[in-house]
Design goal:
The complex is a heterotetramer, with 2 copies of chain A and 2 copies of chain B. The longest helix of chain A has 18 residues. Chain A has 9 helices and 21 strands. By secondary structure, chain A is α+β, with helices and mostly antiparallel strands. In chain A, helix 4 runs parallel beside helix 5. Classes of the chains: A alpha+beta, B mainly alpha. Chains B and C meet through helix 1, helix 3, helix 4, helix 5 and helix 7 of B and helix 1, helix 3, helix 4, helix 5 and helix 7 of C.
């Protein structure tokens, strides 16, 4: 089914969704990304019909659903906290929606769903006795049992133990292929989207910033907000001249002519190399500077590195950290390839 | 040590409070002899009044359940202007002096007011009738039911309702299938509290209906006419019967409770 | 549409409930003329009874505050065996029929029991005295104070107390400096609810002390002797005075409330 | 001050602390680490005196404090949720403990603390109006105002926005130096400990697994639990023979003779290199295998890689991930230096 959102406007006191335009193609696995508070969940609830819509329309194929109550829309939702009915068994949870859909499409393929999600051993148990991963699978089965046109997933992985995530990712992919429904997933975590979705949109302060293929957004962010969101921490306003970008007295090789752009360059922190000696070549930038700050993040260290008035953020492994014997104010060199510089 | 003296003070005053509540009740329960208890329950006046108390109290609780449930649900779920005022109104019956409740209701359905006269002409008797007693009891019991039911509904996550609706259930089907069963324990507690409060009422009922006599009125009359000793056995019977009623209500509610317990393991 | 009919039903029954509570009270407040109100308040019996109601009700609330606060704190903070039983005991006064409360207390302090006789010989008069009224009111008001205070204490994080103690404050200093000020709003609400419940009591007081007359007893007597019309003005005055008392209590509590509001912005 | 914990036993229903022995030297910044539920917070509360002690003793220098009430111990605590007194201003919060310490040591250096933590502009505000970072600083000032012998920190960084963490780390270090108090920090995050503490202990299921210098624990874990905790995900039971370790048909060069050990090797995931061609040398291991699973983690991918029946976990940058065009079941080579193999 094609879902079209046209000029959608939602007013919730101090929070607004403004002029949302979005089309999901049949069978899409679409990720709606953005920082916390961007309005992703509000858009989801507007699609389900739980939030009053101020303006604009929502279509499924050519059926206008803007003013239909939630039960008539054919849109299922899986919440982050699963929201299983605690007084019903797993089986009754999954069957819950069926009685309201008896007149449609014949018997829904419950057995297939139950088998695919390995729920057979759990059918007679109550939700409170299940682990997080099991609850999530039951919630998925319940939502898909009514053969919805669209399945909305509210941060499906974030509440799960890391051990269950891989499992659920595999299930989500297989269900998406088997059901033929359009999946719309909300997430604040870019890597989650990267591992599941084909297309995506980045939302910020109630507006869509960029819509496109997931790798396109990752590799070619069109705005500074998106660049920052996909992890391009080193974002500088520059002046282009030929295949160089000038900023704070530095000349950065960018490898190609920049035209018709906003005048920003962005470099991923993992593309920066710290070394004791400069690494000079024709396709490589290398600048002298000093360590400004060190932050530890599990497997990796994030290093703020000052070159003139610019602060570069680099990420290095713990291993490299101990090798280099980094300390604040130490002088080092920072290097990156011209091809690692993204132009905005 | 200072720490200990503080603890001792707290324990001592807690003990005083508990003694103050329990000792008079225990003394009263143990005062009448078994013989006098048996004699008392055989009197038609006594068992009729206890039966009337039970029947009117349960009726009042059921009326609160039927009419109060939607209001409790709205108060738990929706935000609207004047909600604070509605909540204050709902609590009023607790703080209004009991004879004032009777006087206020009598002012409405008595023969001094058009409503009372209209009802009288239609043959509906409120004053001095079980329906009048039920009306008074409903008035004083409402806040207790509403409070418990509201808390019950508030403890059900709105997300469960959202999911139910997205699966095709209407608002009504969602309420019946999801919200109500999950709030049932609190609702049952509310019904019991409401019923207990209704049966305990005296000051308001005595204004609307001295006759037929509910048990508290009978006790009062016996106390006035014959003294303490003759009112105590009635009090014991009323308390025993109420206890049995509430315990059996809890047991009846147990079958549905099991599921909830299962879900909370 | 089904959805709408469900909503309409809910709104309609909520409306009925609110009308049922407010209309009798409004009717009663508007029934007496201003002249009869003025006349009534000039009668010594009337203003004396209202004053007695206020003074005994406030005394009962203060007794609950002094003796109930430690118990409320223990119930909010500690887990112990039999806690459920203590909580059930504490709720008993709500469900005991009001004349039974009076009969139970009279059974203890009346001349049929040794305690009553000892007190009589010591010259302490409970029956038919303000102290007896205060005792009854304390009994019926306790659960309301305890409930509110317990919730107030439960809402103060134990970590705040832990930090206070690690900074050198004793258990007592922590209670005075941290726990009590933070629970003060709920405690004040509890005092007001307890006072309101105490002033509203009739059935239990009338057994222990018909004289001196508190306002509800006076109303009842006027209703019995002269009819509805003569009891209404007293009811209006009692309600007005109580309202003024509670509003001013809230205002007095406001000065300390400000800080709490500031802290929750 | 020296703190000695001797044979401490705590029973809390189903949870027990067993035979805790720990000595903190004067001026230590000590990290108590371990997974959630290991008993770290219980040990903290036992030190403060909020949990009943079943056996053992606690000494500060030679003063036995086992049975003293919390207010007599001279131990301050800063909770994760700050626990500021909401009805007192920032200034009154900081001053709160002073009136109970009037007889000791003269006036405490409040002004110095307030200045050091930049609290001057906040003194008249109420806690609820402060940001998380500001609240944390107030909580620190309050705890240090009474000049405690020991300051306990309950997960000091975990509730903070990442932007405030660096700031608070710097404050913690400077306060530790200025106050001379012993700091004992609880954390479930190894990297947090790494960035702040000199010495540390790892706790598991109510017992101390390893106590020592922070780098010692990181580089030379003495048990499999600690190895796993400090991020050595690749932990295999092996048979040593000479400078080789044998497991699942593989011969792993370990570069030195292994003697008197439990028979485990551990390799950090960031020390593994994935490549299309084998990287063979005399000091390097290189095995052929296939990708078993791919997990995205923000800047990095975690790759499960199967070699015979062994599963290696490797971490690679997003960049390398796109370069290698990794997909599940693809064949690759995995390589690591003999020096990267830790022997247990």
């Amino acid at each position: 089914m094609t879902i079209r959102i046209e000029n959608l406007v939602v007013d919730l006191g101090s929070f607004h969704l403004r002029d949302i335009n979005l089309t999901l193609e049949p069978g899409d696995f679409f990720a709606l990304m953005g920082p916390t508070g961007a309005g992703k969940s509000v858009l989801l609830e507007a699609l389900v019909g739980l939030v009053p819509i101020t303006g604009g329309d929502i279509f499924i194929d050519d059926r206008k659903i803007t003013n239909l109550p939630p039960e008539k829309r054919g849109i299922s939702i899986v919440y982050q906290d699963y929201a299983l009915f605690p007084h019903l068994t797993v089986l009754d949870n999954i069957r819950y929606g069926l009685r309201f859909h008896l007149h449609e499409k014949g018997a829904a393929p419950i057995d297939d769903l139950v088998g695919r999600l390995n729920l057979n051993p759990l059918l007679q148990r109550y939700p409170a006795t299940l682990s997080g991963g099991e609850q999530q699978r039951v919630a998925l089965a319940r939502a898909l049992a009514v053969s919805p046109d669209i399945l909305l997933l509210d941060e499906p992985l974030s509440a799960l133990d890391p051990n269950f995530r891989q499992d659920l990712r595999a299930h989500l992919k297989s269900l998406h292929q088997a059901s033929g429904a359009t999946f719309l997933m909300v997430t604040h975590d870019f890597s989650e989207a990267l591992s599941l979705a084909q297309r995506a949109a980045v939302m910020n302060q109630g507006e869509l910033e960029q819509v496109g293929g997931i790798e396109e957004i990752f590799c070619r962010p069109t705005s500074t907000m998106v660049a920052d969101f996909v992890g391009m921490k080193n974002l500088f306003k520059v002046e282009f001249s030929g295949s160089m970008a000038r900023v704070a007295g530095l000349e950065i090789k960018v490898g190609r002519e920049a035209e018709g752009l906003q005048g920003y360059v962005a470099i991923r922190p993992e593309d920066l190399i710290l070394s004791k000696e400069p690494l000079v070549s024709s396709v490589q930038n290398s600048f002298a500077g000093s360590v400004a700050a060190i932050r530890s993040h599990g497997f990796f260290y994030e290093i703020d590195f000052a070159v003139n008035s610019l602060i570069f953020t680099a990420v290095i492994t713990n291993h490299a950290f101990f090798d280099l014997e980094l300390a604040v104010d130490d002088g080092f060199f920072i290097s990156f390839k011209a091809t690692a510089v993204h132009l905005l | 040590m200072r720490k200990e003296s503080f603890l001792w003070f707290a324990l001592a005053s807690s003990f005083i409070v508990l003694v103050f509540i329990t000792v008079p009740l225990l003394r009263m329960l143990s005062a009448p002899s078994l013989a006098s208890l048996w004699e008392t329950i055989c009197e038609p006046d006594v068992y009729r009044s206890i039966w009337l108390s039970l029947y009117t109290g349960i009726s009042a609780a059921l009326i609160c359940f039927v009419f109060g449930t939607p209001l409790a649900y709205l108060l738990a779920r929706s935000q609207f202007r004047g909600k604070k005022i509605v909540e204050a109104i709902v609590d009023l019956p607790i703080v209004i002096p009991h004879p004032v409740v009777g006087i206020a209701l009598l002012g409405l359905v008595g023969k001094n007011f058009w409503l009372g006269r209209v009802m009288q002409e239609l043959g509906i008797r409120i004053v001095g009738s079980p329906s009048g007693i039920i009306m008074v009891m409903t008035f004083v019991g409402l806040p207790f039911y509403l409070q418990a039911a509201k808390e019950g509904f508030a403890s059900v996550s709105p997300r469960l309702e959202h999911v139910s609706r997205s699966l095709g259930a209407s608002m009504f089907a969602t309420f019946i299938g999801i919200t109500f069963p999950l709030a049932w324990r609190s609702i049952l507690s509310g019904i019991i509290m409401c019923c207990a409060r209704a049966i305990s009422e005296f000051g308001a009922v005595v204004i609307i209906a001295y006759h037929p006599m509910i048990a508290p009125v009978l006790m009062f009359e016996r106390f006035q006419s014959f003294g303490l000793r003759y009112s105590q056995p009635v009090a014991v019977w009323l308390i025993v019967v109420c206890l049995l009623l509430f315990i059996s209500l809890r047991l009846v509610g147990r079958s549905s409770k099991k599921i909830n317990i299962g879900s909370r393991r």
